[in-house]
Amino acid sequence: MTAAWFEEATADSAVGREARDVAWDATPLGPPESWPDPLRHAVRLCFSTRFPVMLVWGPDLTLLYNDGYREMLGTKKHPAALGSPARAVWDEIWDEVGPLFDTVLSVGRPTLSRDMRLMMNRNGYEEETYFTFSLSPLRDDDGRVVGVLDIATETTYEAVNQRRLAALGEVHAALPMTFTDLRSFALPVMAVLAQSADITRAAFYDVEGVRVVLDTGGAPEPGEEALVRRALETGLREVVPGTVVKPVRSGQGKGLLAVLVLRGTSVRPWDADYARFLVVLSTTIAAALRDAVRRRLNDEALRRRALRSEEERNRATEVSLALQQAVLSEPPELDDLEVEVHYRPAAAERDIGGDWYDAFATQDGATTLVIGDVIGHDLAAAVAMGQLRALVRAIGYDSQGTPASVLERADAAIDGLALGTAATATALVARVEQAGGGALRRVRWSSAGHPPPIVVRADGSCEVLRVRNDLLLGMDPAAPRRDHVVDLGPGDTLVLYTDGLVETRHSALHDRLDRLAEVLAGTHDAGLETMVDTALSGMLGTTADDDVAIVMVRPTGVHGHAG
């Protein structure tokens, strides 16, 4: 017969009712009616909360837990874990967590672990998991530490999704703009994929002879070649458990350039999120390869045309410059804000790049700033740049919404108008508003995979506004967008820029951002035009490998509207 106090403590818990059936008298704890008061108090606490709680007591660390914690045990450990030694239940991770329990038991002080990576076997296979948890001492009537209370939450979903988003950004940053053959394109991409914990194999197949041009990770599985051949025959993406096979279309008829294979890891469950990640990743890589081929074909066509006539070259240059001047207009004159814009083309000779900026006043007196970078440096990129600039400007002016909502509507328009992968771009939208009745300005901003803004404060210090980026424009019309806020006081300067100012082949982006902050530090007393020159000379010298667009804005302290 179960002790009355135990029945009362477990009455509202499904796991608690199962705990009544455990043969406690066969465990080191003995029957519940013999348990000491401190243990009873701990058990009541465990079963009184919905939050995941587990406790262990006695020399064998005999284990009890509530409904919230039961989910962490998966399909294989419950209900056998009730009344079992903690070391036996968590044998596969005891090397990691056992020392934490020993610390609490020996020293009597609590521990806190954040996003701890643990390789569990709770569902019949080795599984990568992450947990944030605190272990606290449980004492007997004499004050001795004889047990441990574990309050925990699983953070696997958040940790894995953040890692995958970072991998998408790293791949995008590594995608070559030009290449000589498929292998030269694949090399930097494979170097990034080889570091991803979510990719155990990646391979580029040539369409001629169905041969592997370059791969990384494990060996191909027996069915991989059959999937590749089927993708070549149908021209359609193949998604099977654990693997995505993506044929890369040339963009000209039904021709194919290559087939990309991405295989996930066995330590994460194959679910809709995992499939979506591999699909987005393969689509991003395929779009870049297709655009690079198109760019090369366009470049070759331009070179042939230039050989036919120098006059035709000059005419094409004049058209490109006219298009560039048309979209890269001067900013509005504002009473309360000083705005400086700058565009610097790359040293390499191109028609026009995909970088753009914009600044305009909305009907409610706020000022909207936009900066972006379309993937590519050809006429298609120029056209896409013009389309995106016009879309964002129209939506921002008409809706007067937050930057996140402007980017969400732009994503929907890209999808609805079928602008395609040519409209894939990084972009940052910022809305400058008056904050209260003083000289303070509040900047709301949202980033679609764009380099972070920098604020040069009135005292000369610099802040790099690093946040977790949202997806690029044009990748997923349903992608959520987030707004961020920063305040600008009199003399503060907000600096927006494209990646051409900070990205190089030989330095990490994090280091280059810190370098830009060092270059701008102490320029608070200079005019904005001088600050632009300082940023360019300090980061690039006299030449640039990529186009650079810069927007700087500084409150003047005079309140008013656009002139």
Task: Characterise this structure.
With 563 residues, the chain is an alpha+beta fold. It is 36% helix and 25% strand. The protein has 15 helices and 20 strands. It has helices spanning 4-9, 14-19, 37-47, 67-70, 86-89, 94-107, 156-174, 182-193, 224-234, 272-308, 310-327, 379-399, 403-416, 509-520, 528-540, and strands spanning 53-57, 62-65, 111-120, 127-139, 145-154, 201-206, 211-217, 238-240, 243-249, 256-263, 337-344, 355-361, 367-374, 425-434, 441-448, 454-456, 462-464, 484-488, 493-497, 548-555. The strands form four sheets. It has a five-stranded antiparallel beta sheet with strand order 2-1-5-4-3, sandwiched between helices. Strand 12 and strand 13 (367-374) form a beta hairpin. Mean pLDDT is 89; it is low at 559-563.
